[in-house]
Amino acid sequence: MRSVARSLVVLALLPTTLVGCSTIVQTEASPSSTVSPSVVATWQPDGDAATNQAAFDGLLQPLTNADGVPDEHDVVNALRGAGLTTDQLQVTPAVTPTGLAADTLSVSAEVQGQCLVGQYHKGTYGGSAVVDPIDGACLVGDTVDIDW
User: Fold this and answer.
1) d(C-alpha 41, C-alpha 86), whole Å
2) Angle subtended at Cα 86 by Cα 12 and Cα 127, rounded to the nearest 5 degrees
3) What DSSP string describes the chain?
4) Is the pTM of this model over 0.90?
5) Which of 46, 63, 117, 144 is buried most deeply by CB count within 10 Å?
6) Which residues of the chain have pLDDT under 50?
7) What pLDDT, on the 0 to 100 scale, is given for residue 10?
C-alpha cells in the first residue's frame, strides 16, 4: 500500500516518468532563461545528488530545443562529458514507438545511491528532482540502451 501511495506522489510530480520518492528537491528552469558559463555549477565527482543538482541542471538546460525535446544522444553526451558513466545514466526515447517526436524526455543520473531526474517537455527543461531509486533504477519504463 505504501508503494502505491509513493507512486501516486511521484506521478503528480513527474507525469510521464515513474521514479522513487523520498525527499523531493525541485528546481525550475525558465524556458526563456539563459545559462551563463560563469554561473553554472561544476560537477563534483565525490558529491552526492543534492550537491550536484545545480550542475546537472546547468548541463541539461542549454540543450532545450524550441521545437520539442533534445536528442537523447546529446543529453547523454553532455552528462558523460561531465564525467558520469553510462552505467549511471538512463534516458527515455526522443521518438515514440510510432516514429513521432516525443512530447517529453526524461533523463536520470544515479549518484551515490540517489537519482537526479530531469525532464524536458515540449521545448522546455523543467528542472530536476532528487529521489531514491526503485528496484535499482532511476527511471522505470521504456528507456534507451546507451550503447554509444
Assistant:
1) 21
2) 30
3) -HHHHHHHHHHHHSTT-B---SS-------TT----TTTSPPP-TT--HHHHHHHHHHHHGGG-BTTBPPPHHHHHHHHHHTT--GGGEEE--SB-TTSPBPSEEEEEEEETTEEEEEEEETTEEEEEEEE--BTTBSSBS-------
4) no
5) 117
6) 1-38
7) 36
Residue with cell 564525467: 83
pLDDT of residue 136: 92
CB contact at 8 A, 81 and 113: no
Would you say 10 and 18 are in contact if contact means Cβ atoms under 8 Å apart? yes
Phi-psi region of 144 (alpha: psi -120 to 50; beta: other; left: phi over 0): beta
Distance in angstroms (rounded) separating the CA atoms of residues 16 and 93: 12
Q: How far apart are CA 102 and CA 26, in angstroms?
A: 23
The Cβ of residue 137 has, within 10 Å, a number of other Cβ atoms equal to 16
Residue 97 CA from chain centroid, whole number: 21
Q: Which three cell numbers stand for residue 5?
A: 501511495
